[in-house]
Recover the amino acids of this structure.
């Protein structure tokens, strides 16, 4: 078995299809990231993979490159990529199209909820060899008979833990039944709870374990600050933070209504902002993200729909105005900054009502410290907001 050091030093050593190799040069892919160096050679050899990696590590290319290589080198057969959200699916499809290159003969289909079934049926009738979609809508087409997966021998499940958190377990089970048993399956997850392990044992065949870094760990290049604050003082503190910081900001809130209201209030108070949540039409969500990428506005107010899969390199700050309902989402939220080795900052507002949520986050990030009876009191004291001396006070206790 080859070691990681001699698996991949660059993409040229893989002897990829000329069309794919040309695309990688055009995309300026030169040195593989650790997850790419480990996963791509194993996937090219035909192994099933159970992979974990922190956000922003180049995971999409780790499965996209071997997937495209298989399609280019085999005239028959198709591939399916399942993803929890439309936003992540769109980013994956964008990378796939770049890897395929212009005028590629390989047809694709993007099958997500919130878009016209008729338009999607048209894509499926063209016999695409690459399908990217969300489990709910994929399952809808399978049950209608408008999609066939009999020749789909390559399956990718991205952000598997998030798909299960969102209640897609039943849909995933149904989709597996429509697929041939003899297939290659690549499963990627940021965390490894028991339900993920059970799923991999059931549907993966002798998978190779690929892991980069630790799970439940925040990237080291994210500077974290915690502000203990009363609920009714959050908005004024948010404005102070926005005044004090430069660059693009994503603010996470709990509800869709709260996102719309905050974006409206911030615009009233002089901050260019837009809201992103699940109730927006897909065309509106695309427009918001396009304008944010172009820096047409500075502050994006989002629900947890944006906690995973949102890859915008210029996001410099993440503000947790409301803490997430699920502790694991804290890691994914703040992972929206410090992408691809850049530096970023994350601020979390913690009110008296947030005690349980914050304790769960601390326990996730640092189990040993969370078990120390005095640690939470010490953390609370160090993270105390001190009005007048500083806009915010950096707690000594960090997750790194």
């Amino acid at each position: 078995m080859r070691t990681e050091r001699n698996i991949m030093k660059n993409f040229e050593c893989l002897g990829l299809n000329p069309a794919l190799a040309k695309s990688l040069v055009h995309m300026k892919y030169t040195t593989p990231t650790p997850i790419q160096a480990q996963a791509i050679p194993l996937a090219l050899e035909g192994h099933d993979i159970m992979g974990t990696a922190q956000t922003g590590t180049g995971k999409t290319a780790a499965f996209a490159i071997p997937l495209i290589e298989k399609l280019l080198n085999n005239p028959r057969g198709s591939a399916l990529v399942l993803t929890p959200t439309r936003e992540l699916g769109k980013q994956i499809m964008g990378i796939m199209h770049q890897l395929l290159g212009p005028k590629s003969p390989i047809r694709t289909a993007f099958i997500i909820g919130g878009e016209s079934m008729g338009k999607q049926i048209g894509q499926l009738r063209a016999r695409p060899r690459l399908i990217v979609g969300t489990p709910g809508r994929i399952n809808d087409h399978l049950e209608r008979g408008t999609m066939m997966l009999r020749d789909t021998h390559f399956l990718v499940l991205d952000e598997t833990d998030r798909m299960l958190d969102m209640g897609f377990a039943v849909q995933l089970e149904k989709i597996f039944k429509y697929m041939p048993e003899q297939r290659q399956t690549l499963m990627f997850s940021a965390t490894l709870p028991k339900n993920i392990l059970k799923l991999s044992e059931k549907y993966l065949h002798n998978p190779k374990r690929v892991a980069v870094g630790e799970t439940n760990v925040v990237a080291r290049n994210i500077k974290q600050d915690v502000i203990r604050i009363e609920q009714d003082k959050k908005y004024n503190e948010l404005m102070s933070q926005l005044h004090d910081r430069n660059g693009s900001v994503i603010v996470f809130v709990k509800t869709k209504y709260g996102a719309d209201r905050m974006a409206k209030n911030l615009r009233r108070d002089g901050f260019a902002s837009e809201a992103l949540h699940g109730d927006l039409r897909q065309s509106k969500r695309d427009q918001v993200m396009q304008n944010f990428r172009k820096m047409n506005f500075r502050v994006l107010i989002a629900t947890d729909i944006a906690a995973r899969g949102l890859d915008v390199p210029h996001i410099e700050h993440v503000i947790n105005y409301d803490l997430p309902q699920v502790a694991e989402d804290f890691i994914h939220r703040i992972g929206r900054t410090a992408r691809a080795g850049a530096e970023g900052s994350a601020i979390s507002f913690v009110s008296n009502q947030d005690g349980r949520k914050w304790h769960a986050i601390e326990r996730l990030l640092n189990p040993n410290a969370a078990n120390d009876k005095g640690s939470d009191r010490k953390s609370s004291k160090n993270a105390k907001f001190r009005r007048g001396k500083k806009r915010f006070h950096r707690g000594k206790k960090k997750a790194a």
Remarks:
- The chain has two domains: 4-212, 222-382.
- DSSP finds 17 helices and 13 strands in the chain.
- Residues 20 and 99 are 6 Å apart (CA to CA).
- The mean pLDDT is 85.
